[in-house]
Input
Amino acid sequence: MKTISQSFGRAKKRFSLFLARFFKKKRTRIGIYGPPNAGKTTLANRIARDWTGDAVGPVSEIPHETRRARKKENVVISGANGSTITIDIVDTPGVTTKIDYHEFLEYGMEKNEAIIRAREATEGVAEAMHWLREDIDGVVYMLDSTLDPFMQVNIMMIGIIESRKLPVIIVANKIDLVDAAPARIRSAFPQHPVVAISGLEGRNTEELYEKMIENFA
Ligand SMILES: Nc1nc2c(ncn2[C@@H]2O[C@H](COP(=O)(O)OP(=O)(O)OP(=O)(O)O)[C@@H](O)[C@H]2O)c(=O)[nH]1
Ligand SMILES: [Mg+2]
Output
């Protein structure tokens, strides 16, 4: 026969399990979004390597290299003052308003291969947009700082991110290139934090990590 104290002990255990589950901090899912070739996978790989030792996916000079979202879970990033965040990094396919297979022929791709790449890229964009609506808690929006930040896709994407009320950090990437103009990105999006980095060289990524802890915690 169960004693009162045994039943009470069991109930207490169940209650504390419930509390633990209830108060367990949900992991924050951070999506890296932006146009093709901005350097999203390069940055995702750097974050993953800096904090977990692994990479996320392949990088290429041909746009739409990433055509399915890829995730790296449980990445713990620590800041200078000892604060940390645990995040899932989601590397997404580059979002564009137009995907034309002819673009890939210029890189020496066969027509069949180019058509498949364009179809996969289109599906990938739809998937990335779905994730943004359903499953993303914060956004790192990547831009190539040698290019015009006022491209239609950027205005549209930032608008969607704002309407979802998601925290966003804008990254002005490729500052190692001579014609990089991160100031142009700062003045295009004055309402959001902008960090100028070189994902390739790792320049200024410390500042990005601090901003991620500040904005996504
Ligand atoms: N100079 C320079 N090149 C970079 C930098 N970051 C990425 N790249 C280059 O830009 C090209 C595209 O990089 P990816 O990381 O594949 O870009 P992505 O945004 O993931 O591209 P998609 O997956 O096609 O949307 C590659 O040739 C990279 O080596 C950077 O900070 N500086
Ligand atoms: Mg990519």
